[in-house]
Amino acid sequence: MDWGMKNRLAQLFAKDGNCMFLPIDHGYFQGPTRKLEKPGNTVAPLMQYADGLFVTRGVLRNAIDPATSAPVVLRVSGGSSVIGADLANEEITTSIAEIIRLNASAAGVSVFVGTDYERQSLMNLAKLVNECEDYGIPVMAVTAVGKELEKRDARYLALCCRIAAELGARVVKTYWCENFDKVVDGCPVPVIMAGGPKVEDKGVIEFVHDGMQRGAKGVNLGRNIWQHEHPVAMMRALRSIIHESAGVEQAWDMFNTLKNADKS
Question: Which domain does 152 fall in, by range?
Answer without folding.
Answer: 3-223
